[in-house]
Amino acid sequence: MDLDLLAVLRTPEGSAALAAAGRVAAAALTQAELRRRAAGKFGAAAAGMFLTRPGLEQATRGVVAGRRAARLRAAGVTTLADLGCGLGADALAAARAGIRVYAVEADPLTAAMAAANAEAAGLADLVTVECGDATEFDVSRVEGAFCDPARRRAGTGRRVFDPNSYSPPWDFVTGLAARVPRTVVKVAPGLDHALIPAGAEAEWVSVDGDLVEAALWCGELAGGPRRATLLREKEGPLLNASGSKRVPSYHLTGTGAQEAEVGPVRRFLYDPDPAVVRAHLVAELATDLDATLADPSIAYLYADVARPTPFARCLEITDVLPFSLKRLRALLRERRVGRVEIRKRGSALEPEKLRRDLRLSGEAAADLVLTRVAGDPTVLVCRPVPVGG
Ligand SMILES: C[S@@+](CC[C@H](N)C(=O)[O-])C[C@H]1O[C@@H](n2cnc3c(N)ncnc32)[C@H](O)[C@@H]1O
């Protein structure tokens, strides 16, 4: 800066230039911050993407979109309509799998960003983004359809839980399967099983133990009625240069209608992955593990032998106590337990309050499981079973 430049900046042209630079700088800062946050979802590919806050929040994780795209491609889909493509996370994953994508997005800014993201990823030849109403798209042009309806109210951004308030609307989404024999719909993991269309496969997906979404695979894409898919991003390879990555995945399938047997508490407890629980596949897992429930309404399994499984965390039960703070505190004192991990199903207790009330001290660690056994509030004191044993 010198005196001449200061004089120029004080002219009307100078202040207009300053205001414009300020707007660009603010927009660039927002993009930089969103890209930093998006790295958790998209890895290195995030660095070249244009993002909005709601678009990023609603976007499918790269690893989940990549696996869905691979399954579509393996089912023979070479042209796909992405009906309500958002920022394009699923569209880009499909294109990376070699699928020609026709993406439709109602919001003009989001549509422009999706097109820019396809270009930045070097996929512009495989992705066409049209700004418009997905319900008017001519699906006779494509072999497959994907719809990830917005589950937030436009304007307020508030979440909607009733599928009839999704956009595009639920009737359109479920009716798609009748028009395109290979249709996939992404839905909230809390989806009511009663809403699953007849003949569709409902899949629940978790990533590193966190439930992230459910999807309905319709028509020719449907396998069995229910599937739990567990992806292990932390175990997986790093991103490759194109931003796609493959990570280990584990699948459990079944009818979702079986009931596991009920028996006593046994030596080992299995805490099933949330995808298994939400897919109603606990009974199938029980059969695989030779395990039983201790309460018909609580999804913990108990077995005499610890078998390695990706579908549940296994703990060895050292003590079974009817719930009593005094007794539990005394037992943990005696064992010099200073650290506890608390998990619960079927208990109204608040883990953090319990942790404070226990006033722990000592160098040992334990796992506490708050649950019910045959209807009675019970605490199980446990220790982890080493992986593979
Ligand atoms: C959940 S987001 C899609 C996210 C996308 N699958 C991804 O991973 O990036 C749903 C999108 O559908 C758009 N949308 C809602 N109703 C639409 C309609 N009738 N036609 C086209 N787009 C629509 C919304 O603007 C929103 O961007």
From TrEMBL:
Pfam families hit by this protein: Methyltransf_15, Thump_like
Gene Ontology MF: a single term: methyltransferase activity
Domain of life: Bacteria
UniProt KW keywords: Methyltransferase, Transferase
Domain THUMP-like: 312-384
The keyword Transferase is assigned to this record: yes
GO terms, biological process: methylation
Protein's name according to its UniProt entry: SAM-dependent methyltransferase
Organism: Micromonospora chalcea
